[in-house]
Amino acid sequence: MTNAEALAAIVTNFGGTVTGEETIADLLTILSGLVGDSSVVTTTYELPKASASVLGGVKVGTNLSIDSGGVLSATDTTYSAATTDALGLVKVDGTTITINDGVISVVSG
Questions:
Q1: C-beta of residue 103 within 8 angstroms of C-beta of residue 92
Q2: Residue 29 lies in a domain
Q3: DSSP letter string over 36-87?
Q4: Environment class of 4 (CB within 10 Å of its CB; exposed 0-12, middle 13-18, buried 19+)
Q5: pLDDT value of position 93
Q6: Which of 96, 99, 80 has the alpha carbon at shortest distance from 88?
Q7: Residue 92, φ and ψ in degrees, nearest 5
Q8: How far apart are CA 41 and CA 30, in angstroms?
Q9: Is residue 7 part of a domain?
Q10: 10 Å Cβ neighbour count for 11?
């Protein structure tokens, strides 16, 4: 059900007549007249920014895309091993080098 169809159903429930050709703005105007409250008519809405505690909108950033169906996808990223000349991934052997609570240590022996 679209937003317009849902709003048309509400207008009908309040005794209004709907032809199916109305825009959402038209339906809001009809509804405000039926309930006697002009505050029902809201023509602007600002989507809040999403956060850890607020459901809202996000912008698609690096390595992300949205398809025509609204599905968000992440691009696979390949990382290279670190060298003396380039940053990259490092594998800790767990014997001579360890990581404990995010701290890298060299095991002396």
A1: no
A2: yes
A3: T-GGG------PPBP-SS---B----TTEEE-TT--EEEPP---PBP-SSS-
A4: middle
A5: 86
A6: 80
A7: -90, 125
A8: 9
A9: yes
A10: 22
Question: Does some domain include residue 100?
Answer: no
Q: Is 22 helix (H, G, I), strand (E, B) or coil?
A: coil
Q: Rg for the chain (alpha carbons), in Å?
A: 28
* Residue 102, in any domain of the structure: no
DSSP class of residue 101?
T
Q: Which domain holds residue 21?
A: 3-40
Q: Give ∠ CA 78-79-84 in degrees, rounded to 5.
A: 155
The residues that bridge with 58 in the sheet, in sequence order, are none
Report the Cα–Cα distance between both ends of the chain, in Å, rounded: 69
Q: How many domains does the chain have?
A: 1
Q: What is the pLDDT of residues 49-93, one digit of tens each?
A: 988 898 888 899 999 999 888 889 999 888 899 998 999 998 888
